Amino acid sequence: MLDDSLPIRNEMMATRRRWTISLVSMGGALDIFDLVIYGLMVLCATLAFVASFGMKHASGGISA
Q: CA-CA distance, 52 to 61, in Å (whole number)?
């Protein structure tokens, strides 16, 4: 439990802490952006690969 003797500051957040939170937030946003770009690249590569073999649908299996 918090004790009344603990030095708790009721000031604005320190600049360094705000900077750290901003960098962590930007890192998370860039991670999501990277995932979207990777997904789009995989989609384009899959469509190019399937189109180069003349297949209509990529079913994932071998059909005779």
A: 17
